[in-house]
Amino acid sequence: MAEITAALVKELREVTGAGMMACKKALAAVEGDMEKAIEHLREQGLAGAEKKAGRIAAEGVSFTKLSSDGKRGVVVEVNAETDFVAKNEKFRTFVDEVAAQALNSNAKDITAFLAEKWELDPSQTVSEQLSATISVIGENMNIRRFEKLEEPNGLVQDYVHSGGRIGVLLQVKSSVVNDAVKEMAKNVAMQIAALNPKYITRAEVDQDYLKNEREILLAAAKNEKPNAPEKVLLGIVEGRLNKELKEVCLVDQVYVRAEDGKQTVGQYVESVAKQAGAELSLVRFVRFETGEGLEKKNEDFAAEVAAQIK
C-alpha cells in the first residue's frame, strides 16, 4: 500500500479537479493506487467538479421549507450558471434536499453548513454532495445562503414567487392560529415579495439613518425655498421623510389587496386580529431574491457555440 502523502493528494486533485477531502478518501479507499483513485472519483461523480467552480453561478432558485407544525421555516438560495439548469428537475430536487437539511441544521453560517454530514448520505459532507451534483448536472452550482425563523407562539409563513425568483419567510406571533390568521400571514408574505420592504415598523429604522436623512432633506428644502420659515421647512422635511418610510416599512405600506386602495398592511393585520380575537404581531421577515448582488454571466451565444465546436 502506497503512503497517502499530501503530495499524492495534491497530484490527484490536479488530475481530477475534485476536492482535497474527496481525493484523500479516494486514495484511502484504493490503498493509494493513483489510477484506481481516479476511477473511484469518476464513479462517484466527483472528478471534474472543481474545474467548473470558476464559472459564474448567478441563476438558480430561492426555496423555502416549513416544519410539519408550522413553527419553523427556512429559506435557502442555491445558484446555477443558467436559467435552463435552474428549471431542471434534478437541480430542484437537490435544492429541496438542501432546504430540508438546513431546516434541521444547527449551523450558524454557510461555511459550517457545508461542512456538515449530508443527512441522506452521512458518508459525505454537504460540500461533497454539492460537488457530486455539479458533476451530474454539468455546470457550476453554489449553496449561497440560508436563514431560519422560529415562532413557538404563532407560526412561520412562507411564500415562493415566480418559481423561485423570490423566497419569503414571515414570523407571526399570535395567541390564535386559525385559517384567518394563516391567510393573513400568506397575504403579507406575498406583499413582502412584491414591494420589498426593509423593516416591519418605523421603530426598527436606524436612528442615525433618520438623522442623516433629515439633514439631507432639510438642505434640499432650503435650496428649493431659501426664504421659507424654519417651521415650513421642517414640515416639508417630515412630509418627505414620512413618504419614504411608507415605502420601506411594511406596516405603513398600502396593502396591495386593499379594496379601497388606502388600507395599510398594519390596518389589515389589526382587522384580522380583531376578527380572530387574537393578540397578533408581525415579528420578523426574510426576503431572498435570487442572484441579488451577484454578477450575471453575459456571453454571446453564437461565440459560445463556436468556442465549443473548436
From TrEMBL:
The keyword Ribonucleoprotein does not apply. One of its GO terms (cellular component) is cytoplasm. Keywords: Cytoplasm, Elongation factor, Protein biosynthesis. It is found in: Cytoplasm. Pfam families: EF_TS (PF00889). GO terms for molecular function: translation elongation factor activity. Residues 73-292 form the Translation elongation factor EFTs/EF1B dimerisation domain. InterPro entries: EF-Ts_dimer_sf (IPR036402), Transl_elong_EFTs/EF1B (IPR001816), Transl_elong_EFTs/EF1B_dimer (IPR014039), Transl_elong_Ts_CS (IPR018101), UBA-like_sf (IPR009060). The keyword Protein biosynthesis applies. Residues 82-85 are annotated as: Involved in Mg(2+) ion dislocation from EF-Tu. NCBIfam families: tsf. HAMAP family: EF_Ts. Associates with the EF-Tu.GDP complex and induces the exchange of GDP to GTP. It remains bound to the aminoacyl-tRNA.EF-Tu.GTP complex up to the GTP hydrolysis stage on the ribosome. Belongs to the EF-Ts family. This is Elongation factor Ts. The gene is tsf.
